[in-house]
Amino acid sequence: MLRILGVSRSGYNAFRKHTPSAGQMKREQRMAEIGTIYEESHKIYGAPKIAAKMRQKGDRVSERTVGKYMKEIGIRACYRKQISMASLQKADRTEACFLQGSRSHNNK
Fold it and tell me: Where in the numbering of this chain does the HTH-like domain appear (predicted)?
């Protein structure tokens, strides 16, 4: 079977005996925690807020590291669009024109 796969016997045995390092375990734990915090925030929080939450829990992690892990996991923050007063005023004008029965904003 190893010949068919093109793998040496020593390489296969090394793969079977491999145990994850402490760094790999810590990385997987952090990724799980990032996913949990992201889900708890209803998929809104980005790297800065997730990093702050992790720091509150006592984990020393940088914003950049959280961002890298989020990218690797495939999650992104949801940015809410702010409504400006200009767009509200424009919406009011549009509604007023509609109520008056005119098709154009410029008609007086």
Answer: 28-81
Domain boundaries, the chain: 22-100
Within 8 A by CB and 6+ apart from 41, the residues are 49, 50
22-100 fold = Arc Repressor Mutant, subunit A (1.10.10)
Q: What are the b/e assignments for 9-29, b being 16+ CB within 10 Å?
A: eeeeeeeeeeeeeeeeeeeee
For residue range 53-90, list pLDDT tens digits in order.
Answer: 999 999 999 999 999 999 999 999 887 777 766 666 66
Considering the entire predicted model, what is its pTM?
Answer: 0.63
